[in-house]
Amino acid sequence: MNKRDVLQQLVRVRLDDGSHPLADGRIQDVLIEMHGERAHVAILIDENWDGGSPPADAQERLRQAVLAMPGVASVRIVPRPRPRARGVTVPGAAPAPGGGDAPTRTLPEGLQGARFVAVASGKGGVGKSSVSVNLAVALARRGLRVAILDCDIYGFSVPALIGLERSPALDDNRKVIPGHGHGVDVMSMDFFVQNNSPVVWRGPMLGKALRQFLFDTAWHHPDVVVLDLPPGTGDMALDVQQQFPPMDVLIVTTPDPFAARVAERAGSMAVKMGHRVMGVVENMAYRECSGCGRREYLLGRGGGDAVAAALGTQVLARIPMEPPPPGLRTDGLFPPASAAGRAYEELAATVAARLGLNRQDAARPAGRSR
Ligand SMILES: Nc1ncnc2c1ncn2[C@@H]1O[C@H](COP(=O)(O)OP(=O)(O)OP(=O)(O)O)[C@@H](O)[C@H]1O
């Protein structure tokens, strides 16, 4: 029996509120002392679990889950303060597939304290990047410091959607200065690719690029980092999810039943990787007739609800289909007063509330404003 076995057992546990005990660094470490064949396990948990003391029923759920493992003689739950380190090291939520110890997901100092919201989809074209960008901008409008990381290395589209075009610049510490648009810091492969040429790197290079994005970027302590994940459940999506500490994940689907089935798989994968599904965003949910206001369900109905039911979560937003505004469209942002824009304002309010980030929390400390 080793730490990985215990983490694997804990990955399966769901708490009463549907959340995952490994989310948000709630579980800090697992210590095992072997006495002959008998294992005595201590689970170190964050004493400030979700901003309060760890609920007794959650502690008991963890204890029972580990106690049920063969060879476990005792389980102690030990609340302790969250460690303060230069880089934030969160014990890996899920063991690396294929063995090895759970990955240690270390973050650079400039991302310390940030909450991560990953936007995932089962397949391309459902509007994952559109949701990432519009949500990020709506969160920034609420007064939060927001960064967006375009993790879709092959299919990057975030800068275009947010209306940014620039070459990377370095600061005095030779860190890459993120792009900045509509109140959001943006980091994307797009900044490093000439003339929209395709990225042809293989896996190891991609992993390196992501690490570089994280560690060689001059981050400014965002409150929230929105991650536009690669679509699907393949190696690329897996690699990215493994690099980050437990995150809240939004699953994007259209109302179409096929998109919904693959979206479910994306959600299940996120949970297996130790992340927590915050909810579902049904994009292109309907189209409102501009004359009579009647809703037309061009892509069918029920996809979002089906994904939410399968993942034990809720539909947090239904974003209508919205034709591009008249005139030359320079980005993929919906104006706040449009039907889609209003849906994003509501989604941002919900996400901020779920993260416990209200505007006062987000007030910028002196010297940090940009
Ligand atoms: N609610 C909407 N109404 C109208 N157009 C939309 C809506 N959502 C997204 N789109 C448009 O659909 C197209 C695909 O969206 P997007 O690039 O966000 O999809 P994606 O899921 O990220 O795709 P991929 O993973 O292949 O990059 C874009 O042109 C985007 O502007």
TrEMBL record:
<feature type="compositionally biased region" description="Low complexity">
    <location>
        <begin position="86"/>
        <end position="96"/>
    </location>
</feature>
<keyword id="KW-0547">Nucleotide-binding</keyword>
<feature type="region of interest" description="Disordered">
    <location>
        <begin position="83"/>
        <end position="102"/>
    </location>
</feature>
<feature type="binding site">
    <location>
        <begin position="122"/>
        <end position="129"/>
    </location>
    <ligand>
        <name>ATP</name>
    </ligand>
</feature>
<keyword id="KW-0408">Iron</keyword>
<dbReference type="InterPro" id="IPR044304">
    <property type="entry name" value="NUBPL-like"/>
</dbReference>
<protein>
    <recommendedName>
        <fullName>Iron-sulfur cluster carrier protein</fullName>
    </recommendedName>
</protein>
<keyword id="KW-0378">Hydrolase</keyword>
<keyword id="KW-0411">Iron-sulfur</keyword>
<dbReference type="InterPro" id="IPR033756">
    <property type="entry name" value="YlxH/NBP35"/>
</dbReference>
<keyword id="KW-0479">Metal-binding</keyword>
<dbReference type="InterPro" id="IPR027417">
    <property type="entry name" value="P-loop_NTPase"/>
</dbReference>
<dbReference type="InterPro" id="IPR019591">
    <property type="entry name" value="Mrp/NBP35_ATP-bd"/>
</dbReference>
<comment type="function">
    <text>Binds and transfers iron-sulfur (Fe-S) clusters to target apoproteins. Can hydrolyze ATP.</text>
</comment>
<dbReference type="Pfam" id="PF10609">
    <property type="entry name" value="ParA"/>
</dbReference>
<comment type="subunit">
    <text>Homodimer.</text>
</comment>
<comment type="similarity">
    <text>Belongs to the Mrp/NBP35 ATP-binding proteins family.</text>
</comment>
<keyword id="KW-0067">ATP-binding</keyword>
<dbReference type="GO" id="GO:0005524">
    <property type="term" value="F:ATP binding"/>
</dbReference>
